[in-house]
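Instructor's aside before we start: the two examples that follow are unrelated to each other. I chose them only because their records fit on one page, so don't look for a connection. First example below.
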Amino acid sequence: MRQLKKLIVPVLSLSLVLPTMASAAPAPVKPAAPTVNTPAADLRAGLDYLLSEHFVLAVNAMTKAYDGAKDADLAFKALDQNALDMTPAIASIYGKAGAAEFERIFREHNNYTDDLVMATKMKDQAKLDEVADEVEEFVVEFADFLDTATEGKLPQEAAEDALRLHEQQVQETFEQYIAGDYKGAYETYREGFSLMFVISKALSSAIVEQMPEKFGHSKADTKAADLRSTLNSLAAEHVALTVPQMQKQFEGAKDYQALIDAEKAHTADFKEAIKSIYGQAGADQFEKIWVENHIMAQSDIAIAAMKGDMAARAEVNKRVESFVKEFGSFLGAATEQNLPAAAAQDAIRTHENQVAAAFDHYAAGDYEKSYMSFREAYKFVFGIGQALGGAIVTQFSEEFQEEASPHDMTKIWLKIGSKDLSVDGKVTKMDTAPFIWSGTAFVPLRYLSEGIGAEVKWDEKTRTIWVMAGEDTLTFWLGKDYMEVNGEKRDIGTKLFARDGRTAIPLRFIAELLGWDVKWNDAEWSITLTKSMME
């Protein structure tokens, strides 16, 4: 089964995409006011929507087909329609011929979905091998198309690497699902979903670089565009998890609890995003509002439908309306009315109605209308990301200014998936590679620290790591989401863990902690660390 695009670039953590308001350094030169509404940001947002929806619909089509669900054919139809919806977007950039070639490659790869599922159900290894060969053919052909279309701005090798990674994640999600490992399946699903937004950034950046005049010399990778994309991701993933969770809970499906757990993890991510802007108090208030009369209420809608309890449903509807008013007011107050509370409430109410419609049609057995409502709900939230992102950028304008003259003297170079570490041109082979996990780029703490001349010590008994950098001592603990600098506690934002026997740490956190600036190369999927000139 082929999932379209996996084009690259290391994914950004929420703290990277949403600059910490208290510590972001002011730009030396202040250009025009930053905005989420530029031609390049619009292109990226459009790709955010189409590519992420493709992933959601593709996984859904595979699992529905394997389960022999009544709506399996409509699931594939929705997937195919998503591919058709991409064609006009491609035509607007590369013309009718380019769009036709894209559609041929892309729609054909969607057909592998059914082939893979059928071969898996029949345990037909020969057919599985054949599908694997077809997948590889797609990877090479589509990567060549992207390389040619972008005139090398998105190189074929990088595109191939990304496409293969994407295919692996899709297949792993499917395999974990059919094996009954629902927890693992939805964890992998969330990773794969997150990567779609990485892909859209890479592809939009390549296109904008290729055609600067067409996009008004705007850029797809500004802080404001990053914010808009992150909010797109958070809002869209909520829809992608909530609608199937309600449907599966209504049916009593074996995986509905795993979906509830995935929603909890998503809520935690959303809370961290709010915290990075409005602090702990704002994050706590968000969580309370978001969960009680929203996430829990949507689950209660499924329970009421399962019992045929119309009175209970009416009570839940009142709770949902309470959420609409409270959350809209929260957003209005938090953004200092840059997003008016009334406008926020209108948008949230529309969202709730669309989600409810997708569920109600499904519960009534009208699967065609259910898919229509789901796709409407999914598309709608990308407008919310734009509106909320615009309000935040206006509110904290200085924090989203771009540096006019970035310094690019390379000091340290790494690459996602590569064990090479270059320090001032000298390459060291690591025994593990940087990787992406839950939307964040992680690097091996020891190698990065030693690469810049720091001394690293480890205590197995207490699971403690000390990094001696100059006169500073940094203390980390495996399993803890905080560390200390000379005894002063600092929040990392995520619990440290080991991978391949090495402590992994979020790249953005350690780079800023040690005073380095981070630069991503979308084409190479590489990371360059340079000394900050703002120290």
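Example two begins here.
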Amino acid sequence: MIGTLEWTLLDGEHALLVKGDMRRARERFGHAYAQAEQRGEADALARAALGLGGMWVHEHRTAAAAATVRVRQRDALARLDAGSPLALRLRIRLAAEDDYRTGGQDAIMALVSEARAAGDPVTLAEALSLAHHCVLGPDDGPRRMELARELVGVASRTGRRSDLLIGLLWRAVDLLMEADPHAERALGELRSTLDGEGQQAIESVAGAIEVMLSTRGGRFAHAEERAAAGYERGLAAGDPEAPGRYVRQLAALRWYQGRIGEFVPLLTDLLNSPVLPAMDDSPYAGLAVAAAVAGDRRLAECMLARLRRGVLADGPRTSTWLVSMYAVVEAADLLGDAELAGRAAALLAPYGALPVMTSPGIVCLGSVRHSLGVAAITTGDPGLAVAHLRRAVHENLALGHWPAVALSRSRLGQALALRDGPRDEGAQAARAGRAGGGDARHARARSRGRAGHLPPGGPAVAGGAGRADRVRGPLRGHAAPGGAAGQPGQGDPGRGPGRGIAGPRARAGTGAAGAGRAGGDGVPEPARAARHRDRGAGGRSPAPAGAGTAGRA
């Protein structure tokens, strides 16, 4: 007869591995740990401690919660035979958590080799999956693709469906991050494998990738609807990434809508939120460009100064590094900081063939070539800018990223005008009909930045001074998920990371900040009105960024 402790452990393992319900799994493993500790049952204690780690790495975001779980795992490890499979699994988990926090990978990769030699497929599957989290930087493509490929194969020997799903997920993510044309095919294979029996943790990530693909397609309203729904599902499942993922997805949408200035209050709050992963400086970069667009030069320069010892130094290249550098380049251009733009371009140069993407494929900002072209404009080299931006247009076309295509074409027109003069036919062709409301707003902000007229605390470029920044959305009032074992999530519910984001109940058309100012296709209302005026006068209106550009080269 199965005892209470074993039932609790089995329930936790079922919740985590079969259902992907991270919230219930934490609760059950927390209870199991307490029971096993009281009874002095070492193996049960180790299984509970392993389960508390979750499916991914860094699921416990606050210092207190992470330290609690780490102590429990080390204590459980100390009670085991050092040569047992459970002991190796705990060592793998501890090494992965430490490497992820520091941006390293040596310790976990050494343990992957040890797991291969040990011959236990479950141990090896866990090692491969956890190691993959530690190799998500732009230099790590071949290594992580090999890990994912091996995991898919090992999954056939573990008897756990979750191992196959994780392997297929990582394979799709890896192909996306390398701009492989077969990436969406791999995502389709994952989706077909998920059909029939859901897995909340995997479905949450797959859904976020589909939000990114909708944004690439210029389907802004659809992307925002899907992002909000995914956020709600993630919260229900106890996914610690749900709030930060939602913020990043909305930030990408607002950037292409020319409304990123509306995000200054939200990003300011997010900086000190416990939901942010370790080693993630991207909110500083995002706030720098949002503040520059909104006219707050002091805040933008403050954020960039903080990055000089992080993403702008010779530190680890994490999964958010390329997105951070994209924002740094745009902020440098808005501020007219040629030195910073040149430094960023030198760091980005080896990665020109990659898309600007954050793992696990939830945000894409187009080709790195676009950032290299913008940096060249800022440093006063329009010839180099033209070369980079022409390639960026074609690479963004290959990605099917229509908003990025429109933005790169607009920048190409700017570079051609600087090189050949504003009357040059190439510059006029690149600009005419390519830049929508978002591009126009970015251009106005750039012109103010070059003239040195960014007033501290100036109004947002899109929509006025803070008028809609404080819409209360679905993130408000939620504690940060991923609490200590057996405890509810932590965080200050009155100052959640999503304060200021509109969700399913607070949106109209594009949702947050500015409901009624944009239509269902994500085109800002001022751009739409101008377009209708142009048509009424018999003129030809410019297409909005990311809308109606498909098929135009």
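The mean pLDDT is 80.
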